[in-house]
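In keeping with the milestone schedule agreed at the kick-off meeting, the structural modelling team has produced records for the first pair of proteins. Each record is given below as a sequence line and a structure-token line. The laboratory manager (R.T.) confirmed that both were archived under the project's standard naming scheme.
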Amino acid sequence: MAMGEVPITITGNLTADPELKFTNSGAALVKFTVASTPRTYDKNSGQWTDGTAAFFRCAAWRQLAEHIADSLTKGSRVVLSGRIRQHNWQTEQGENRSMLAVEVDDIGPSLQFATATVQRTQRPTPAAADSDPWAGGLAKPAPNSPGPATPPALDDKPPF
């Protein structure tokens, strides 16, 4: 995260199904709104009371955007983390406007009142796995570099 960015974590419910779009270059973009309403317990009346709801416009990009569109629907309770962004524009009448929105870095269903089953997805390109040592195999050595082309022999000794 860059210096000066404002991080935020929000727990709330989606107010509508996420809207998935693609840019001209093919990048996925999803937009949605999360409503968060604080609740407090009044000991005198024995009742829960709702506070004022806050509505947060959110956006996510690329693979995360596609996962959100595939996984979440209106009413889904989520926990998200992201960064607050300010957007400025001018209306046709020449008035300056601005709004705050959340650029989502991570999101998942809230498990306080629900359960979820996680399904891991494949990486988008096999070339990315070639340089990722955690992708299940050993990284390929760089061209013209000495290095084992085959994995080392495995034994029962601990690796530490």
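The second protein of the pair:
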Amino acid sequence: MSAVQQQRSAGEQLPLALVSEGSTVRVLKVRGALELRQHLQELGFVPGANVDVVARAGRDVLVSVKGSSIALGRDMALRIITT
């Protein structure tokens, strides 16, 4: 079991950027400036939303949230805290 999987199984908070491909997590909160938080909420990253990590490409991550596929850069994905 990887360190990321151990953290998830313990229910700890983990930035979306660190979640393994193939995992499903739940959004706990979104950090950042008001405009950024609003933008991510409009994309579906709201507390309680399930997020499937579909693929990883380098530092970027492709996720599925509320029926939409979204590609996020690492900096953006670090601001989405999951459990």
